[in-house]
From TrEMBL:
It comes from Sphingomonas psychrotolerans. Monomer. The gene is queA. The keyword Acetylation does not apply. Its EC number is 2.4.99.17. This is S-adenosylmethionine:tRNA ribosyltransferase-isomerase. SUPFAM superfamilies: QueA-like. It catalyses: 7-aminomethyl-7-carbaguanosine(34) in tRNA + S-adenosyl-L-methionine = epoxyqueuosine(34) in tRNA + adenine + L-methionine + 2 H(+).
């Protein structure tokens, strides 16, 4: 499909620079079949059914944004995928000043050797020493806010908490699964009381999620691979929910993409561990999920293509026009939508 079909105009003031407080006070646009309703995230229990199950991504964002020196040249690195115990793939700023074999000093006693430059311009960074890389990053890294926020304000101490979900327990993401940022213990208790269950999986979100689609046609776009895991117990639980007539509602496009990667043609979800580069566009037949909670996405992005595949392109273009006209807040720190096809 032509990528221009997924374009829309978003006024810059609609981009949220801070999350709602409290988190579950964010607005919620509900698309239930042909109906559209304006609601609040804490109203979510009333829009789901007893026996439904929400599936969350428990990945934890690491301080993956690094600034260093190669000699006198300033080098910026955004880690986006672990490739070994001490090796990370990274997008590089000022990459023309970096060569394979160069050492980059990130300060605080943290250095890495650049190697294996890929076609997309990324390098592999091999971190020196024996300390766990996670500890090194805590010393020299900072929270990797999306570029549409970082270009408007500096990262600060609030982001260390604001950009983690309440489920974050498995370190490895360089972007938050932002739909889950809206959830609080109080909301989870209300969902439990309504008979709506929850479970978790892990998908370590990569920086590739923010890369624009540069191709003119979706067939020419290639996704960056991300590592994920659904254990057998969780897969069995999801299958049992659907067998009993409940719905599996993915919280976030990352949860959805991993479930769809693990689902067979008959809809049964299998245990999964490994990389996925699934790219979902209109025409895709969903097999493992029955609905989605998600934020509002960038124009021409793979994530807007995904929600258009779930609900229909015309439906989503109209929904986004409504959200813009009624002052919904967009992107990672913005408001949410509940999509029930």
């Amino acid at each position: 499909m032509n990528v221009d079909l997924f374009d829309f105009e978003l006024p810059p003031e609609r981009i949220a620079l801070r999350p709602a407080s409290p988190r579950d006070s964010a607005r919620l646009l509900v698309l239930d079949g042909a109906e559209t309703r304006d609601a609040c995230v804490r109203d979510l229990p009333s829009y789901l059914r007893k026996g439904d199950l929400l599936i969350f991504n428990d990945t934890r964002v690491i301080p993956a944004q690094l600034d260093g020196l190669r000699g006198e040249a300033r080098i910026g690195a955004t880690l986006h995928k672990r490739e070994g115990p001490r090796r990370w793939r990274a997008f590089i700023r000022n990459a023309k000043r970096l060569r394979q074999g160069d050492s980059v000093d990130f300060g605080h006693g943290v250095t890495a050797i650049a190697s294996d430059r890929a076609e997309d311009g990324s390098f592999a960074l091999d971190f020196a020493g024996t300390e766990p890389v996670e500890l090194l990053l805590e010393r020299c890294g900072r929270m990797p806010l999306p570029p549409y926020i970082a270009s408007k304000r500096p990262t600060d101490a609030r982001d260390a908490d604001d950009y983690q979900t309440m489920f974050a327990s498995q370190p490895g993401a360089v972007a938050a699964p932002t739909a889950a940022l809206h959830f609080t213990p109080e909301l989870l208790a209300a969902l439990d009381a309504a008979g709506i269950g929850h479970a978790t999986l892990t998908l370590h979100v990569g920086a590739g999620t923010f890369l624009p689609v540069k191709a003119e046609d979706t067939d020419a776009h290639r996704m960056h691979a991300e590592w994920g895991r659904i254990d057998a117990e969780t897969a069995d639980r999801l299958n049992a929910v659907r067998a009993a007539g409940g719905r599996v509602i993915a919280v976030g496009t990352t949860s959805l993409r991993l479930i769809e990667s693990a689902a067979r043609d008959d809809g049964r979800i299998q245990a999964f561990e490994g990389d996925t580069a699934i790219f979902i566009t209109p025409g895709y037949r969903f097999r493992g999920i029955d609905g989605l909670v998600t934020n509002f996405h960038l124009p021409r992005s793979t994530l807007f293509m995904l929600v258009s595949a779930l609900m229909g392109l015309d439906r989503m273009q109209a929904a986004y026009a409504h959200a813009i006209a009624t002052d919904y807040r967009f992107y990672s720190y913005g408001d949410a939508s509940l999509l029930l096809p």
